[in-house]
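Q: What residues go here?
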């Protein structure tokens, strides 16, 4: 694990000051459910931890100026149980409750889930396994073990909260050493298996996520090997508002969540299925076979279409 220091700031400003002093050789620690595995497998090596858990200002969930505001340090369990989510955002509740296990959800946070590291069968393995098979582009090798290519990594974004929140038109608030700013959540993601995120420069911390409160119909479905535990092999979240604006967000099939949006009346199901297949850069790096996942994407979009047009 980390070797040098474990810092516990009480405000975002203190956390940013500590990060500035460490000049990149640190990891923010929220629930730790993702990064502890990476430390154990020798996939990250920063020497210090900055634990965000004592920053009370990052934990609240409630309505503010007509938007649901979720603090980034709220746990997935607190999110699913919170009254505003229970009463108005069943999509978020379903997405949160589909993640990992009840014990993990009591520790894992919203911010940590949005920044969960991309996964690949050839990378998320023990050090011994990786040495035996041969390292890849994302680690110390010079080739992608899935495609044989030398330039591009196709590891998959597996956050289940991200597609649900993106379909709901969420924005994310960040604070770095120089400024606080807000961007659409979809813009946080980069379709690159190695550099997965934007806007995290200058030690940025996600402080909150905001979602407009609007009447909507929703759909959420997730495919995975074991429903009790496994990461997603395909997640589809969709929202249609009262003006027939449709947002479909697909995750776990590509390096970043894929958002398709427009007026419902401008699409046909077949067009949507074709666009989704084209936009998702899916390769064979998951527990479930590639052909099956591609087929299930069509099936879920069909189901989504029927359910939102009922
Ligand atoms: C067995 C298992 C099954 C799982 N199944 C699923 C699943 O089905 N679906 C799914 O979506 N996820 C799944 N996960 C992933 C899990 O949801 C994530 O591990 C968890 O949400 C990460 O949250 P955390 O608070 O523990 O993050 P951490 O591990 O603490 O951090 C994750 C990353 O985010 C950074 N970070 C955290 N908070 C902030 C912040 N506020 N600002 C800036 N950076 C921050 C950290 O530095 C780190 O890089 C699974 C995990 C396990 C172990
Ligand atoms: S997609 Fe290729 S480069 Fe990326 S983690 Fe997997 S094997 Fe490595």
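A:
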């Amino acid at each position: 694990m980390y070797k040098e220091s474990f810092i516990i700031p009480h405000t975002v400003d203190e956390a940013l000051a500590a990060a500035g002093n460490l000049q990149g050789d640190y990891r923010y620690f929220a629930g730790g459910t993702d990064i502890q595995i990476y430390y154990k497998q020798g996939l990250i090596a920063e020497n210090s931890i900055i634990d965000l858990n004592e920053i009370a200002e990052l934990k609240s969930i409630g309505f503010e100026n007509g938007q649901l505001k979720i603090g980034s340090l709220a746990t997935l369990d607190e999110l699913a149980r919170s009254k505003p989510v229970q009463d108005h955002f069943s999509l978020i509740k379903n997405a949160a409750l589909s993640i990992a296990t009840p014990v993990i959800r009591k520790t894992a946070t919203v911010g940590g889930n949005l920044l969960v590291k991309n996964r690949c069968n050839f990378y998320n393995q023990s050090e011994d396994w990786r040495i035996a098979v041969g390292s890849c582009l994302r680690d110390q090798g010079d080739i992608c073990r899935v495609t044989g290519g030398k330039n591009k990594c196709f590891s998959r974004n597996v956050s289940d909260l991200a597609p649900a929140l993106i379909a709901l038109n969420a924005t994310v608030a960040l604070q770095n050493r120089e400024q606080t700013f807000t961007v659409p959540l979809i813009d946080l993601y980069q379709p690159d298996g190695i550099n997965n995120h934007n806007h995290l420069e200058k030690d940025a911390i996600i402080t909150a996520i905001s979602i407009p409160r609007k009447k909507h119909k929703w759909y959420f479905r997730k495919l995975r090997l074991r429903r009790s535990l496994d990461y997603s092999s395909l997640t589809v979240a969709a929202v249609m508002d009262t003006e027939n604006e449709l947002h479909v967000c697909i995750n776990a099939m590509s390096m970043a969540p894929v958002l398709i949006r427009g007026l419902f009346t401008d699409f046909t199901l077949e067009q949507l299925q074709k666009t989704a297949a084209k936009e998702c850069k899916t390769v064979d790096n998951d527990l479930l076979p590639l052909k099956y996942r591609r087929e299930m994407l069509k099936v879920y979009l069909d189901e989504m279409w029927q359910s939102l047009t009922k």
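A: Context that may help when evaluating the design: The domain at 1-55 is CATH 3.30.43.10 (Uridine Diphospho-n-acetylenolpyruvylglucosamine Reductase; domain 2). The mean pLDDT is 96.
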